[in-house]
Amino acid sequence: MKSKFSYLLILSFFISIGVTTLATRKAFSTGHSGQSDYSNHDQLGQRLQNLYNAYPRLVKIESLARTQGNKDIWLLTIGTGDIANKPALAIVGGVEGDHLLGTELAIQFAERLLAGSADQKIRNLLDSVSFYVFPDMSPDAREQYFRTPRYERLGNANPTDLDRDGRIGEDGYDDLNNDGMITMMRIKDPTGEWMIHPDDDRVMVKARTEKGERGQYLLYSEGIDNDKDGQFNEDGEEGVIFNRNFTFKYPAFGRGAGEHAVSEIETRAIADFLFAAKNAFAVISFGPANNLSKPLTYNEREANARIHTGWKQKDININQKVSHIYNQHLGKAAPSFASGSEGDFFQWAYFHYGRFSFSTQGWEVPSPEKSETDAHNSDELKFLRWAEEKQLENVFVPWTPVDHPDFPGRQVEVGGIAPFVMKNPPYRMTDSIAEKHTAFILDVAKLRPQIDIVNLKTERLGRNLTRITLDVINHGSFPTASQTGEQLRWMQKTVMRVNPGNNQTLLSGKPVEVMGAIDGRSSETRSWLIQGSGSVTIRVGAEASGFKEIKIDL
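and the corresponding C-alpha cells:
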C-alpha cells in the first residue's frame, strides 16, 4: 500500500478510547484517492486480491458461494495465529443492494487495518483478535448501480414471482425518458394524493387534507403497466432480498422475502459460516438499521417473553457503552436511529445467532448549513438544499413530459431525485466516513472478552494433599457471552477443565465445569483439592473469549 502507519501517529490512537485525532486520521489513509466512484464487483475483487498480495501472512480470501447472478460472496479473514480460537469481530457490508456505502466501509476497514499492520500495536491487536469481513452480501443487486437502467435494486438474481400472479418478471422497469435511470413519474389527476411542494416545484409531497391542501397528482415509479394489473414495476428481474430472508420475524409471503427463510445462496452462505465461527463475539453491519447513534431501549415485557423479541437488560448496557464510543467518533455526523425490520440480518445476528449485533447506515443527508423551514418535512427537499450547498451535480432529473400508453392524452412527466444519491454520499466523501468507522471498530475490538487466570495459590495441607485456588477473570468490557447467547446452543459456554496427572486424584472440585457468562471486568473464584504429586493442567475459556492454560507442579 502507498501509505503506512508511523509509530507516533498510531500511538495517539491507542492511548485511549476517544475521538479520532488528526494524526490518526492521517495514519488511516488507504491510498485510494485516485478512485472516483464506488467499486463494481470485479473492482471489489481486485481490491481484495491486492490486499492478499500485499499481506499474504495476515489475509485469507475465499468465496463462500456464487450467486445465481454468478457473483462471488467474498470473505476476508484477517489475523495471525490460531484464527478460530481467539475472539473475532464480523464486519458485514452490502446488507442492502442500494447501500453502496456499506460495502465501501467494510472494504476500507480491511484496507486501513492492514495498512497499519507494520506497527507493533496494530500487530498486537491482530495477534489477539480475528476479523471476518464480508464486504458485499448483495452483489447481484448492488451491480445495478453499474448497469443500465440504473435503479435502486434490492433483490438478487433468483427469478421470483414478486406479485404472486403465477408469472415471473413480466412487469419490470421501463426507462421512459431514455436517460439511463429509473426515477419517478407524476400524472396530473384531481383524485391523486400528491401535490407539488409549495417551496420547490421539483419536490412532490402528500397533500395534507387536514390543512386544506388538495392532491393534484398520482405518483409512481417510472415505468409501464406491462401486465395491465394496475401496478407499475411490481415484478421485474430482481428476486429475493438478502435483508428480508432471515429467520427472526421472517415476513412470510412478503415481497422479496423468498419462498422460505434462509432460502437464498447469500443468506445460507453467511449463516452457515457464522454458525461454524464459534469465536465471533459481535457483529457490526452496515445497513438501514441503526442502534449505535442512539442505543436500544429496554422493554421488560419483550425481553422476558418466552420467545423474546427485545434485548436483554445486560446486553442493553453493552449496547449503551458501544453507542457512546460510536458517537465519540462520529459526533454530529452520526446518522439517525433506525429500528430493524422483519427478516433482517441485524436482528437475526442478535436473536438467533446470539451475538452482540450493531448496525449503522454510516451516513445520512446532513441538514443544510442554512436550514429553512419546511412545513412538509420533506427528505427530498432537505437533500436538494444540501446538494445545492455542496454544489453536487447530476442528483436531480428535471421533470420531462412523456407520452405514456397507460395514460393517453394526459399530462405525464418523468423526473425526480436520481437513484442512489440520497442513501450514498459522493464517493469523495467516503474516505473521511470510513476513517471514523475504522477507528470505531478498532475500539470495539479492544473491548473484547479476554479470559485469564490470576491469583493462583497452592497450599500444602500435609498427607500429600494440595489445595489449588485461582480467579478466572474477564479483562474485557464485553461479557464472555450475551444474555441471549447463553440461551442459544450456538454460543459456546466458558468451560473449565482440570486434568490431573497419572499419580493424582481429584478429591474436591469439578474436573469439568461449564460456567455461566462472566461479565466484563469481573472474576470468579474456583478451588480444588488434589492428592498426589506431579503436574496438573488447568484450561479455561471459549472460542469467543480465548483460552488460558496453566501448568502447576505439585
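(Above: one complete record from the training split.) Confidence is low (pLDDT under 50) at residues 1-28.
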